[in-house]
Amino acid sequence: MKVKEIRDMTTAELQNRLQEAHQELFNLRFQLATKQLANYQRLGQVKKTIARMKTILRERELIAAQEEFLVQQEDK
Fold first, then answer.
1. pTM > 0.85: yes or no
2. SS3 (DSSP) at 76
3. How large is the angle between the packed helices 41-75 and 11-33, nearest 10 degrees?
4. pLDDT band for position 20 (50/70/90)?
5. Is 3-75 in CATH node 3.30.360.10?
6. How much is the pLDDT for 74?
7. Distinct helix (H) and strand (E) counts, the chain
8. Which among 34, 43, 41, 4 is positioned nearest to 56, based on CA atoms?
9. Residue ranges of the domains in the chain?
10. CA distances from 51 to 12, 15, 42, 54, 76 (A)
């Protein structure tokens, strides 16, 4: 999944996709342990997608916190 696609999602969609990606990673690790995994590259792809999603969620949290701080400073 590309960064642009992730950024276009709403926060709720992003959290839902993140949960799905964690479930997929769990299943891939289980397949790896039982020697049933056919595509080993998929493990790395899912990990990187999870990292991208978490990064964008954190960016949104920081932006919201900064905006809240600025509003509080204007009130003073």
1. yes
2. coil
3. 150
4. very high
5. no
6. 87
7. 3, 0
8. 4
9. 3-75
10. 17, 12, 14, 5, 38
